[in-house]
Amino acid sequence: MRALVISGGGSKGAFAGGVAQYLTEVLKKDYDLFIGTSTGSLLIAHMALGKAEKVKKVFTSVNQSSIFSSRPFLITKKHGYENISINHFNVLKNFLKGKKTFGDSHNLRKLLAKTFTREEFEQLKNGNKEIVTTVSNISLNEVEYKSIKDYGYEDFLEWIWISCNYTPFMSLVKKNGCEYADGGLGSMVPIEEAIQRGATEVDAIILQTEVTYFNRMPSKNVFSLITNLFAFMLDRIEKQNIRIGKFAANNKDAILNFYYTPSVLTTNSLIFDEEQMKAWWESGYEFAKYKNEELNQIEP
């Protein structure tokens, strides 16, 4: 049983899309199981449908307004670098409305409904591939994995959206009496879940470099401090997930193939820049091509 796992990583998901497109379209890898966390959840359904070009067009044309109905930060450029600071007006407005988060991401929920149709959902649900998205149940302090086989169209769309909600910058969703947030808060790289579901070979796309190549710049304001703290925590979670995944693979004699980003793409994955994401998609495609050509040269 072959599985494709795509980690969380916000706008860096464009790189994962390029890698996944090469694996599915050029290498013709026939995956039985697709598991995604956060931005990975946005990609897996279309990759399972063989519609990489469709999701590429959507993914590489989004901007901040496509994601946020209330964006909690401002982006300024100085000396060629993007700086992020708090949008006091939007944050205050959210709090006055009784919201629990700095911003809201209902525009992303609307975008999902436009780009993943009911017909596509039914095709996958009635097919032989399993699509699984990762969410964090804050109320029960648990990570949950939601399979397309277990839900109707509207519910599954909502689970995909929840998986992508990088709380507290994006929406906190109450569903079935519990509060839910981004799957990456509990499982950034769900390799272990893929193996527990029977995968004997896993291709895992990791939206980080294998080795840390940079030190974070000093925080310039409260908002950048919070984003740096969350990035630190998610990095720790990701490394732990990979270690656990390797351990599970060894115990089950499963094969693991890792696709890390070869360089640092961005230090703030909340920034969605169309041109940048187009370049990342192409670089992901070329990286997967290069890596597999290199492996073929090594094999006798």
UniProtKB/TrEMBL annotation:
At the top level, the lineage of the source is Bacteria
Q: Where is this motif: DGA/G?
A: 182-184
| SUPFAM superfamilies associated with the record | FabD/lysophospholipase-like
- GO molecular function terms here? hydrolase activity
Tell me the Gene Ontology biological-process terms attached to this UniProt entry: lipid catabolic process
Pfam families xrefs: Patatin
What PROSITE patterns does UniProt report for this protein, alphabetically?
PNPLA (PS51635)
Q: Where is the PNPLA domain?
A: 4-195
Catalytic residues (positions):
S38 (nucleophile), D182 (proton acceptor)
Coiled-coil region(s): none
Under which name does UniProt file this protein?
Patatin-like phospholipase family protein
